[in-house]
Design brief:
Chain A is mainly alpha-helical. Chain B has 310 residues and is mainly alpha-helical. Helices cover 75% and strands 0% of the residues of chain B. In chain B, helix 1 crosses helix 10, helix 6 runs antiparallel to helix 7 and helix 7 runs antiparallel to helix 10. Chain B is flat. The chains are: A mainly alpha (370), B mainly alpha (310). At the A-B interface, helix 4, helix 6, helix 7, helix 8 and helix 9 of A face helix 1, helix 2, helix 3, helix 4 and helix 5 of B.
Chain lengths: 370, 310
């Protein structure tokens, strides 16, 4: 009898004794899914609840099995792993949910004819009421907001990039860790944390003092966005300039090239891909800012292509006003359809900018294959 | 003595050097001037509200009676956001730095960064249209079962547009900030410490507890502080999600208001003393976030000096 048992036992090596078998996580996961489905079937099934209950059951099952076989230290390790992986999955939930919500609600607005080419000029609540009652297409579009966003962001970029880039050059090439350079670095970091609405209030207050109370134009909004954008440009350009090898600068100096020409012809061309992608990311950051534009550019329903005069619409404020103050208060659905359509356009813009930034960084990266 | 070719450089080159270094210096000083200007112009425009007689200010009780409930509301929303976001963010950062397979890690990091790319107004719209509706039944349950606690006192809001919902949306928005900063700190942990711990037979969790977390603690604290700065100043998530009102202790009733949302909701139609009041409120917000950010940056720099990181 004992001789027949011995070979069976010896299959488990002494080294792997006291460990869970390799299939343990999968087995527990399968069991957790089945039991979870059974529990949810009793109290009414939904996918989110199923995932949640199964995840909790999986963690409890795996940890208690591990505690029984492997001891408390390994069990704690398993528990930590479950919590860490779980927190990552939890963090993905809002991302998936936001993108899904915007897609589902935004596509009907976006495919509406004229959505990208019309403004809201003349679109009143009466039209929205009619659209709901008769089922006709929703009128009005985001052309004016799109135009405003592009112009304001462009002006902000034109202000921020020279200032930001020159500051970065000062910090890397001229400052040399002096007092002023340290102060600038510190305050740039602090500036990154300025709430966007405070930047908007600053621009508004500045123009109220300089141009008279109540001045609201696209240019004021561009100044507000620059306050938010400059620190981002400084940080990213500074990092890129710092990684330019010192040998390049010294080779240029050794050839008798002036410092400013070295910077313009050697340092910046080497770092240009990183700088460009940093600027693109900075644009992506400010293009979605709502609060500063709300307090500086007002909101318009008609096309205004003059950044320096008159109120101006932008995509974020368009979304905000359409949700908060629907064109027709009794029938908010057309307004929310337009808002979600605009939100989809805005997200696509931001994602495109992020993608472009990555492409720039990859394609124009300095060749280092020697 | 005749000038040798070496020293007689063209004047244009020297002038170019001067112009260029001057421009760089001016740009650097401009940034300091802007930050100073932010404070200065806010103060100038806020003075009328601070000196006005009490009955002219909204609420009729003076500026401080007007500002303190929304300061408390701002703090409540930010604290909710941090309580939710901090553990999850640290978990996500650990997952990316120490748990995920090396080949996936950078891709997963990019996915989390996508959360930061979504504009705040879209989060606000999502919170108002989707999250508030989905979460309202849970508030009813909380009011029924845990109503004894002042923070869950009923009757719960049926629309779900409460400060707790706003706090959850804020948590989603500060999550990527805390995650990316803590991730970088976790990756800077000295490899020798980690490997020494593992060689002594520590499990992965024990290694993280003994080598990674003690090293990263100042970094985590400053990451949380920076997240706090963002949560305090975030406007749209609160303006769209919260149906505001007077200060209440219950998190699941409508009520409370934050400074940023108060400004965004009222500034476009404001005039006269109301504008000054709102700019003064902005000044208060600016001072609070400035203090928080400066402390966070100070912690980071101090940490840099003695850890040899960077």
């Amino acid at each position: 009898m004992t001789s027949t048992l011995t070979p069976v036992r010896s299959k488990r090596s002494a080294l792997t004794k006291g460990q869970l078998p390799k299939y343990a996580p999968y087995a527990v996961l399968g069991a957790a899914l089945i039991v979870g489905a059974a529990i949810l079937a009793l109290i009414g099934f939904n996918a989110f609840g199923w995932g949640l209950v199964s995840a909790i059951l999986f963690a409890i099952g795996l940890v208690s099995w591990s505690a029984a076989v492997e001891g408390s230290r390994k069990a704690k390790d398993k528990l930590a792993t479950c919590l860490v992986v779980g927190s990552f999955l939890v963090a993905l939930l809002p991302l998936v949910s936001v993108i899904w919500t915007v897609l589902v609600n935004g596509v009907p607005g976006l495919i509406n004819p004229g959505f990208l080419t019309n403004s809201m000029n003349g679109v009143t609540g009466a039209y929205d009421n009619k659209a709901v009652e008769n089922g006709t297409p929703v009128l009005g579009g985001i052309y004016h907001a799109l135009l405003g966003t592009v112009e304001i962001t462009l002006l902000a970029t034109v202000i921020s990039v020279p200032v930001g880039l020159l500051t970065a050059i000062y910090l890397v090439e001229y400052g040399q860790g002096g007092r002023l350079a340290k102060a600038i670095t510190f305050f740039v970091d602090v500036m990154t944390g300025i709430p966007s609405i405070v930047a908007g209030l600053f621009a508004a207050a500045f123009f109220f003092v300089v141009m008279g109370p109540g001045t609201k134009t696209g240019a004021v909004a561009a100044v507000a966005l620059s306050v938010l954008m400059i620190p981002v440009v400084v940080r990213s350009s500074e990092e890129m300039l710092r990684i330019v090898p010192n040998e390049l600068r010294e080779a240029a100096y050794a050839l008798g090239v002036r410092k400013w020409r070295t910077i313009l012809k050697v340092v910046i061309p080497t770092a240009i891909s990183g700088i460009a992608s940093g600027v693109t990311l900075a644009i992506a950051r400010v293009i979605g800012e709502t609060a500063p534009i709300l307090v500086t550019a007002g909101f318009a329903t008609s096309i205004n292509s003059n950044v320096f005069g008159g109120w101006m619409a932008s995509l974020p404020t368009f979304i905000y006003t359409q949700i908060l103050n629907p064109t027709s208060p009794s029938n908010p659905d057309p307004s929310s359809q337009r808002a979600w359509g605009a939100a989809l356009v805005l997200i696509i813009l931001v994602m495109l900018l992020n993608l472009v930034a990555r492409l720039i960084a990859r394609i124009f990266a300095p060749k280092t294959g020697r | 003595m005749t000038a040798t070719p070496l020293t007689s450089t063209q004047g244009a080159g020297r002038a170019g050097d001067k112009v260029f270094s001057g421009a760089a210096l001016a740009a650097g000083c401009l940034i300091l001037a802007v930050l100073f200007g932010v404070a200065l112009f806010l103060v100038v425009q806020a003075i009328p509200a601070l000196t006005a007689p009490a009955d002219k200010i909204q609420g009729g009780q003076g500026f401080f009676a007007y500002i303190w409930p929304i300061v408390i509301g701002t703090l409540i929303a930010a604290v909710i956001a941090l309580v939710i976001a901090t553990p999850i963010a640290i978990g996500v950062a650990l997952f990316i730095s120490h748990f995920a397979p090396r080949s996936l890690a950078s891709g997963l990091g990019y996915v989390v960064d996508l959360l930061a790319a979504i504009p705040s107004v879209v989060y606000g719209a999502w919170g108002a249209a989707f999250l508030a509706k989905e979460i309202a039944p849970a508030y009813g349950w909380l009011a029924d079962n845990m109503g004894g606690l002042p923070i869950f006192e009923g009757p719960a809001s049926t629309t779900g547009k409460t400060i707790l919902t706003a706090g959850i949306v804020l948590a989603v928005m500060v999550l990527p900030i805390i995650t990316s900063l803590s991730r970088e700190i976790f990756l800077q942990t000295p490899k020798l410490h980690e490997e020494a711990a593992l060689a002594l037979g520590a499990t992965r969790w024990e290694m993280i507890k003994m080598a990674v977390l003690p090293f990263a603690r100042p970094g985590i604290i400053s990451a949380v502080m920076l997240g706090l700065g963002r949560a305090l100043g975030e406007t749209m998530a609160v303006a769209l999600v919260l149906s505001s009102g007077a200060l209440t202790a219950s998190l699941i009733q409508s009520g409370n208001q934050t400074i940023a949302a108060e400004i965004a909701l009222n500034f476009p139609e404001a005039s006269g003393i109301k504008v000054s009041t709102l700019i003064a409120a902005g000044l208060v917000l600016f001072i609070i976030t400035l203090a928080v950010n400066m402390i966070a940056r100070w912690v980071i720099t101090r940490h840099k000096e003695f850890s040899g990181a960077n």
